[in-house]
Write a structure and sequence with these properties.
It comes from Roseibium sediminicola. The chain is mainly α and about 60 residues long. The chain is about 55% helix and about 5% strand. The chain has 4 helices and 2 strands; from the N terminus they run E-H-H-H-H-E. The protein has helices spanning about 5-10, 15-25, 25-35, 40-50; strands spanning about 1-5, 60. A two-stranded antiparallel ribbon has the order 1-2. Helix 2 (about 15-25) packs across helix 3 (about 25-35). The relative contact order is 0.24.
Length: about 60
């Protein structure tokens, strides 16, 4: 699954550590999310949506195929 988390985080001026703190996860989790190596749980996806103030559909894009 592709995502726009790195771009959105940068637009807010947040470091990976800042975002991790806001989400109550580790920085390593943020890194894995941004690199597409980890698909978030539904609970984490909703937290991301709330933190960025965007619907989940604007944060993630499913892989084609």
């Amino acid at each position: 699954m592709d995502n726009y988390l790195k771009r959105l985080r940068a637009e807010q001026g947040w470091s990976q550590a800042d975002l991790a703190e806001k989400l109550d996860v580790s920085r390593q989790t943020v890194i894995a999310l941004e690199r597409g190596r980890y698909d978030p749980s539904l609970k984490l996806a909703f937290r991301l949506s709330k933190v960025f103030g965007l619907p989940i559909e604007q944060l993630f894009e499913p892989d084609e195929g």
